[in-house]
Write a structure and sequence with these properties.
Layout (H helix, E strand, L loop, with lengths): L15 H15 L18 E6 L3 H18 L2 E6 L3 H10 L6 E4 L2 H9 L8 H10 L2 H6 L1 E2 L2 E2 L1 E8 L2 E4 L1 H7 L7 H15 L16 H24 L8 H14 L23 H7 L5 E3 L3 H7 L11 E4 L13 E11 L4 H10 L2 H9 L18 H11 L4 E4 L1 H4 L2 H16 L4 H9 L6
Parallel strand pairs: 1-2, 1-3, 10-11
Antiparallel strand pairs: 3-10, 4-5, 6-10, 7-8, 7-9
Length: 448
């Protein structure tokens, strides 16, 4: 999904039904578990057909299929890909009903972990384990690991926290890229004063997944303001949403998102944030009605589709959200990011061969050459990326001094990460008191 880097559907799709599905899994586990209806029944374990299910759709799905087409022919394996906007809810239903795909491309490690803990997924075969050891650092491997067992491998990736802007406007007005969070707030105030217009455009709209762009803001701010230790403990609920350190991130975001002087450029006021589709600000950036927008590296595709050239000397460029305090940190980039984990419900020979290929540097380079996406695979050549911003993102992911953390809501249990957290962002930006919202989000955490 393009929240991470692909199609013009969001990075993750889920509604309250997904939480119901997970509860249903737990009940099924109490009455005998997954049984024999798990992976592999949607494809013939004895044939060369391997079914793959994911969220990647539209043009990006076509490119995905193109990326493995030559390998299919060479290995006499037919990969049948199916995209769904309701992946998070339907993967639960299908696994429980014995109609799981051979392979699933999970946009959320937390959801993959749910499936693994309930016994639906197969541990990664040895060839995949080796590819993961060779191609990814320990943090990325951990995102595919549940209770000490590796179940999958990372696929594509994105770097989040980019602030998109017009280089020509910055040059004309003498604006400089800020070096800390207060500098970004000061820049916002200066832009408002100079033009009389709201500088920022924000869109939370994403059908059943409305609210996710707001979670990205909070994650970026928690990591930059409070550091990795707090971020990691927040992900595991050792630090709850109601903690003052998390509340502070909401307060800081509110200085922009809840200020009618600063939003919502090209769309209206604060009340339009929830109803503005997350892809629409790309057009506002290109036509000049919006000056600043926060979104991941995948957004360069949206800007290109809107008619803009993404380049340092082009129509639109981007800088990373600055550190909270310019004097702190190691000097390297501090970023959040996302991606997918490929895991299998089947352990057929053909399925394992597909898993091995998708976890290889060969596949990563094949897909990245086709444009629009990146990978954190260490065997990926940044020169294969289709744009300068994507090349920069790959360089950041591969740098030894980068502080990287996976999207927190994707790591949390789906009832929270794609449930109460998304809904909480909607309620919060629509005016609900921060303390009440944080209590509501925290209430989504499973009791055990």
């Amino acid at each position: 999904m393009r929240r991470n880097h692909v199609s013009k559907t969001p990075r993750r799709w889920i509604a309250p039904i997904a939480a119901v599905s997970i509860v249903g899994f737990a009940l099924a586990g109490c009455s005998g578990g997954p049984g024999t209806g798990g992976g592999g029944e949607s494809g013939d374990a004895e044939s060369n057909v391997v079914t793959v299910y994911g969220t990647i759709s539209d043009t990006e799905a076509e490119l995905l299929e193109q990326s493995w087409a030559d390998w299919e022919k060479a290995n006499n394996i037919d990969i049948k890909y199916e995209a769904s906007k309701e992946f998070e809810a339907q993967i639960a239903v299908r696994a429980q009903g014995g109609n799981a795909p051979d392979i699933a491309i999970f946009p959320q490690p937390g959801l993959m972990a749910d499936m693994a803990k309930l016994g639906y997924l197969k541990p990664a075969p040895d060839a995949v384990k080796k590819n993961v050891e060779d191609g990814w650092n320990e943090d990325w491997a951990n995102y595919a690991t549940v209770d000490g067992t590796l179940y999958g491998a990372p696929l594509m990736a994105s770097v989040k926290g980019w602030i998109w802007y017009s280089p020509s406007v910055f040059a004309e007005k003498g604006y400089e890229v800020p070096t800390d969070w207060q500098g970004l707030l000061d820049l916002t105030a200066k832009m408002k004063a100079d033009s009389g217009n709201a500088p920022w455009c924000i869109g939370f709209g994403s059908d059943a997944a409305t609210g996710w762009p707001g979670t990205d803001w909070i994650e970026d701010l928690v990591l930059r303001q409070s550091g990795t230790e707090v971020y990691d403990k927040w992900v595991s609920n050792e630090i709850p949403f109601t903690d003052p350190q998390i509340a502070s991130a909401f307060d800081e975001f509110g200085k922009i998102a809840k200020n009618p002087e600063y939003v919502n450029a090209g769309f209206g006021g604060v009340d339009t944030i929830v109803t503005t589709p997350f892809g629409d600000p790309a057009t506002a950036l290109v036509n000049g009605t919006c000056s600043l927008h926060h979104q991941a590296s995948f957004y360069d595709g949206f800007i290109t589709d809107a008619g803009g050239k993404v380049a340092e000397d082009g129509d639109i460029w981007a800088f990373l959200m600055p550190p909270f305090d310019a004097t702190s940190g190691s000097g390297g980039s501090v970023v959040t990011g996302g991606g997918e984990i490929v895991a299998a419900f089947s352990d057929s020979e053909a399925t394992q061969k597909v898993q091995e290929y998708l976890s290889s540097a060969d596949w990563a380079n094949s897909r990245v050459k086709l444009g629009g996406v990146i990978s954190a695979n260490k065997g990926l050549d940044p020169a294969n990326a289709s744009s300068d911003i994507l090349k920069q993102a790959i360089t950041i992911l591969q740098a030894d001094d980068t502080t990287f953390r996976f999207d927190a809501s994707d790591l949390m249990p789906s009832a929270v990460g794609s449930g109460t957290f998304w809904k909480g962002m909607v309620d919060w930006v629509n005016g609900t008191d921060t303390a009440a919202v944080l209590e509501q989000i925290e209430a989504g955490w499973p009791s055990s």
